[in-house]
Amino acid sequence: MNGMACVVAVAIALGALTRPCPAAAKAEPAMDRYYNANALCKRGLYPLAIKEYEAFLAVNPAHEKVPNAQWGLALCHYGMGAMDKAAALFERLAGNARVTDQDQLHNLWGSSLAVLGKQAEAVKAFEWTLKNAKEQALKADALAGLTQAHSLLEDWPAAVRTSEDLIKLAPDSPYADLVRYQGAVARMNLKQYAEAEKTLTTLAATFPRNAMTADCIDTIFYLGLCRARQKKYDDAIKDFTEAARRAGESPRAPEALYWQAWCETQRGNLRQAESLYTAFLSKYPADRLLPAATLDLAELRFRQQQQSPEPGKAKGGRRAAEVDYASIAEALRPLLAEDSKTPATGELRSRVLYLLGWCLFRQGEMGPAAQAFETLVAAEEAAAKADPAYRTGPLVASACFQAGEARRNLKEFGPAKELFEKAARLRGAAATADQDDMLLRLAQLEAINGQWQESLRTAQTLLQSFPESPLRYEALFAIGWELYA
């Protein structure tokens, strides 16, 4: 989730690692190595302690102290960050009556599993402590570990629940602020932006002005996201600017810059947005957000050109610039290349194909335009076929329509008719902005193909469904022509 993912896992262990290890009860030569290992463990000399524990276990495989030695060995491996070895030993000792500190054992086991990426197993270990522990502090540790594990599993409701439980149980826990932060991020992912903003605002105020730690940067960044989602763009831009200032060269810096540009776009400051997107692409050419930034910038320029005066009609006697759809298309193509290091995927790829299709259409390249739109439709249909739960995006019907327009301009009337019919099926009865246009095109194509009755019905549907459409006169003309035919 963020740079603090392992803080709880490491911190929870400190209590157990600094507790006194068992001391010698009486002289016993066979136990010398065991007691020596305990002393080394207590002092934090883990490599030396490991050698002593392993030597004791090798010589005394059936000794009654074997579980205790394995417990000390597990703590040493944990302290050195060897979580795979530690987790294996914790698992072996879970439920062993010789190891009386089972509550802490399960917390450490859960922590090691979390570091190993086994979050679901970590949840089970932490839940054991939460259910069985007598000490409030150990329950609080378990709740901290659970909040982290749930967050990494993206089980946001559970993360919110355990974070709230910890704050109620132990508001002064050393993990309280971290868990508050993780709970706020979980709320943000549940679109509970106002609640998340409130918590993050409180946390952000606790950091010194020049703090540049990961937790500080992440808190301010997510605060910006919460505000952006609530359309508080001015405040969000301040947060992202501050996060970028503190981030320096950290991985959060490009994200902060990207979201600055996005917010500027939303509040209509398009020149500033274009400048920020351009800076992002120049400074972070291999960042994972490059496809999104490239597309956002292309969409921004496309809209600007759509809104600009026609060439030769600019005010003040100056000629307006030619609409440069070719350069926009050129910027988009690398996102679709098979050998791209930063390809557009999923919904982003569909948006790239859609905008590319429009740029080619405006350039008069009808064949490539149709291909771009049809590729989008085919990809969405394939995804829906592979996953019954997949819902095709809102661009599919419009892509069908525009592909039909391109095919019609190429005088490929059969394919065009099929595309218009598919667009009609996808839209259903929804009165979308260009459905009347689609019905008129379909009526015209049916007439061209000699399907007079079908064309008549389609034109009549247009008039009935869109009685105020500016295309109604063309529909009336089509009806008259079809009745004449």
Question: Can you put this structure into words, describing what you see?
Answer:
With 485 residues, this protein is mainly alpha-helical. It has 4 domains: 1-187, Tetratricopeptide repeat domain (Serine Threonine Protein Phosphatase 5, Tetratricopeptide repeat), CATH 1.25.40.10; 191-267, Serine Threonine Protein Phosphatase 5, Tetratricopeptide repeat (Alpha Horseshoe), CATH 1.25.40; 288-309 and 322-415, Serine Threonine Protein Phosphatase 5, Tetratricopeptide repeat, CATH 1.25.40; 429-485. It has helices at 7-18, 32-42, 46-59, 66-79, 83-93, 102-115, 119-132, 136-152, 156-169, 176-189, 193-204, 214-229, 233-247, 252-266, 270-283, 290-307, 325-332, 346-363, 366-386, 395-409, 413-427, 435-448, 452-465, 472-484. Helix 2 (32-42) runs antiparallel to helix 3 (46-59) and helix 18 packs parallel to helix 20 (395-409). It is elongated and about 105 Å long. The N and C termini lie far apart (67 Å). The model is unreliable at 1-25, 314-321, 429-433 and 480-485 (pLDDT under 50).
Question: Can you give keywords for this protein?
Answer:
disordered C terminus, Serine Threonine Protein Phosphatase 5, Tetratricopeptide repeat, mainly alpha, about 475 residues, disordered N terminus, single chain, 4 domains
Describe what is shown at a glance.
The protein has 485 residues and is an all-alpha fold. The chain is built from 24 helices and no strands.
